[in-house]
Write a structure and sequence with these properties.
The protein is mainly α. It has a domain at about 25-80. About 65% of the residues lie in helices and about 0% in strands. The longest helix is centred in the middle third of the chain and has 20 residues, at about 35-50. The protein is elongated and about 55 Å long. The model has no long low-confidence stretch (mean pLDDT about 80).
Length: about 90
């Protein structure tokens, strides 16, 4: 019952934001160019492998993932600064 209250206390917009955070391409982790290139190229290469072996569904799926990553990491990329924890004052 406690878990049910906790799950219900989150608004739909909070759940949506947490899902979108999963696909946060503006994270400071993606600031180096080589990481962004690797994240785009890796699924594209795997899509090529899948398509060459006749697995059309998986090939198209990985091409879509690569296209989403390309858009998020090169077209709409706006990296934010890393968040720092607030300094705690000594008592």
């Amino acid at each position: 019952m406690v878990a049910r209250r906790t799950a219900m206390s989150h608004s739909p917009s909070a759940r949506r934001k947490s899902i979108l955070k999963f696909f946060d391409f503006n994270d400071p982790f993606f600031k180096p160019l080589w990481i962004r290139i690797a994240v785009v190229v890796a699924p594209a290469l795997w899509a090529g492998v899948e398509l060459m072996t006749g697995q059309t569904f998986w090939g198209v799926l990985f091409l879509a993932i690569s296209a989403l990553a390309f858009h998020g990491l090169f077209i709409a990329f706006n990296p934010r600064e890393p968040e720092t924890a607030p300094d705690k004052e000594a008592d």
